[in-house]
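Hey team,

Filing this mostly as a record. A colleague (T.K.) asked me to run one chain through the structure pipeline before their review meeting, and I want the input and output archived in the tracker in case anyone asks later how it was produced. No errors, nothing strange. Just documentation.

Input sequence:
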Amino acid sequence: MLSRVYISLGSNIEPDRYLKSGLSELSYHFGKLLLSSVYESEAVGFKGSNFLNMVVGVDTELSIGELVSLFKQIEQDNGRLVGAKKFAPRTLDLDLLLYGDKVTFDPVELPRAEILTNAFVLWPMAELAADLIHPAVNISYQTLWNEYDKTQQRLWPVPFAWTPALADEAATLYSL
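Output structure:
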């Protein structure tokens, strides 16, 4: 059975390059992607270059565990070091935010807690799924964004162009 999942993508090392690569690989695995705008934000939790962030929605039959494993592999294929510090620069960060309306802590916490705390996750979630209800707090993402204290984190939309044709590059990675 298909489940709609939402994935956070972020990068602050060659972010344009790595977001495009991540999108191409997600397109290769899932086909059609629902894309939020791309937002630039200051690093949270450490001093570093600004991040580019976005949220992607896909439909999948993969389990939560299979998705997490796939995302780790995509990160590693894009230069993310295994065991790297949480609050550090990164080429590509893929985090599963929602898996349908599941609330769980195993194998990962869902819905992901940072949806409620980080503007770079909440704003694109509200953009993609405004009327969707957060399964733990029972409030729509648009309402959560409207009520979010926007003085906590600086965030702004930036131009970004990606086309699914770039997914052919990811297909090449997996056919070698």
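Quick notes for T.K.: The first strand starts at residue 3 and ends at 11. DSSP finds six helices and six strands in the chain.
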